[in-house]
Structures are given as structure tokens and as C-alpha cells.
Amino acid sequence: MPGTIITTTSGKGGVGKTTTVVNVATALALLGKRVIAVDADIGLRNLDLVLGLENRVIYDLVDVVEGRCRLQQALVRDTRLDTLFMLAAAQTRDKADVTPEQMLGLAANLRQIADYILIDSPAGIEHGFQNAVMIADRTLIVTTPDVSALRDADKVIYLLERDYKARPGLILNRYNSQLSRSGEMRSIDDVMDILAIDLIGVVPEDSMIVLTTDRGTPAVYDKRVMARQAYLNIAQRITGNNVPLMDFRPPTWRTRLARIFGR
Amino acid sequence: MRSASTWCARPRNAFEAVVNLGYSAALEGAEQQDHVEAVVAESNIGGQRFFIFRGNLRSGQVLRKTESIIVIGDVNPGAQVVSAGDILVWGRLRGMAHAGAEGNLNAIVCAMSLEPTQLRVASYIAASAEQARPTREPSKSAEIAFIQDNVLTVRPWNEAKRGFRSVFLG
């Protein structure tokens, strides 16, 4: 069965596309799926850093599409999981160096060898974005609850619906349940009211995330990171298991006690 | 925009507002006209045509028509609806709406929840005075915006029903 290509995009930069790709890819691989994470941000290579695989990259995406190496040679195997691979972007080239035809050819080959191919789209809605979403079987929109990220996400959803007849899923990132409870910030419902697409997951705001991305160890390995469970849940939902949303209410004395006694 | 001094009003009843927007054209073509007593031959505000859009208008989308526009869905922040006639939104209007864009001072904008970033009727422009709260609930009541005594005025539809008729009759 050919694999599924899932492109993660957002419009706005800095909302957590790369972090999402790395953690969801790792979580899917933990479920035993064969996963390839592809960095489509040609010229601004990041995914290898966040996966902690920078020093293993020999060939990149542009080498593959220009025929300087075979796809299998360019795939970097993850150091922790046997079923997780990464295809790095070229740092020295430009988005315009990859044509849509080349992306389609690459996509066909990727589908042959993996269950899930997660593509990290560049920010923006230009050439690089078009290349990344054109080949997608499914698209995931990453947004934070703030007004500018939402505005850009809304525009990207419009473009996806118009040009690709896609039905994107939503990952609400950096969700601060405390601020939304006090009414200072949009709640999940407020965000869904504007974007009106399928909700795939909500990742809580977590200051520990920055450490995991900086050190190249995905958050799903770190039990101290609250967001970990959110990524594991997203992976479950992608594979078709309907798991409930995380509970964002503050712990009561009852749940605190239960936690102390390990139940 | 919603300060007390600008509250004002209009139409006769909800049915008439619908007829004004040209729904009569649909009724006219319907067969078995015998049961339909309220049919009028043409729009009572000058043979205006209308355009219906079904679905949400998202950020960056622009709907620009010489006809009156009916949106069945939401108009999100960042989207624009521009019409030479009236604009009716069956949903939340949070983007920019410009009715009477070719100078018709009798044009109106109405929405189930009227909370636009900017509202224009002919050459009148109104912007929300306060920064929209991120978590604002939809309005309790549908509202209507029109020009009254040289002021772009917004009123809840059930208050606008009483007493003010001239705007809606052009």
C-alpha cells in the first residue's frame, strides 16, 4: 500500500511547523510505522537540527531531485528509532531550484518506501509552499491562538481549499489554557469558530519545548514535557484511532492525590 | 461604532427585508403560484439583482459584485465583501463590508452577528472603536447598519423594526 504524504504548513513563520513535524514523525515511528520526515524549506534547513541529525547529512533533497544520488542514499536514519528517516533540505540552494515536476517524482518514490511521509513546508504562500502542498495527500495547518497566526492560517486554508480541494486538519499549538480560562485569550472553541476545519490536536504551551528543539531530542522522549502527550495523541489520530483531547483543566486536590499515589 | 449616540433604526418586518433583497425573483418563477399571496413582481427598490455566496469567506478572499450580496456563512477577519447594493450575512460578519460601493446612500449591511473590523456604506466609514476582544461572543441579536442623518448607524434588528421605514424603501 502506498504511503500517505502529510504536509505541515502554516502561512506564518515561527508557529511550530518544524517542531510539530519532528514530534509527530517520532510519535508515528514509536507506533511502529515507517516514517520519513522531509524538510521542504530549501535554503533554510532546520529539520535536521531539531531531529539532532545534522552531522549525518550527506546528500539532500536537491541532490535527489537532480539525480546526483539515489533517494535511499539521501535518507538519514534516526539515531533512536529504526523506522524513522529524514530527508534534509539543501542549505546552499534556493526554493526555485526545485520544480513541481521534480517534487511529484520525489513524492512517488517516497510513497513507495514509507507508511507516512511528513513534509515540513516553508513559511509563506509562495513557490516553496506550493511545492510542499502540491504533493500532499493530507495537509495539517499549524497555528497558535494569536491573531496574526490565525489570520494567516485562515488565508492558507482558503488557498488549500481553492487550489487543491484539500480538507486540511488543524493543530493548535502553544495553547495556554490558563489565559483562555480567564477569558484573556481565545479558547479552542473561539479558534475553531474562525477556522472551521477538523481539529487534529491541541499542543499546550510549554517552555520545556525550546530545550528539546535546541538539543535535538524530540519532546516525545521527555516525560517532563507536557506537550509530549499531545504529540502522541496526534499520531494516534493520524493513524485513525480516535483518542480524546487532553484535559487542560488545572489539577484538583483529588487528581493531585491520585498522581502522588500513582493512579 | 456602537456608542449610544449612533443607535438608530429601520425596516418594517423581517419578511419585507427579504423581499427587498430580491427574493421575489425566485418566488416569481415558482410553479403553483396560487398559494403564494405575497409575491411581488419585482424588487421594490429598483429592480436590484442579488448574488448568493454559500460558505465561509476566509482571510484574503474578496467578494466584489455590483449586485446585492447574500452570504450564507461567516465572513472572517481579513475577508472583504463589496457590493453596489446591500449586504446580508447569515452568519458572523468579522471582516470588512462595503455596501453601496458606487455611492448608494440607501444601502444597508445586516448580519446575524455584526462585528466587522471596518464597515463602509457609500463613502461613510466606521471602524470598531475598541479593539475587538479575542474571545467575543457573537451578538445576541442580528443587527443592521445604515446611514441615518449623515451617521453610519448600527441597530439590533428588533429595535430597528419600530418606527423607521424610509431607509428601507430607498
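The interface with chain A takes residues 56, 58-61, 74, 76-78, 92, 94, 134-135 of chain B (CB under 8 Å).
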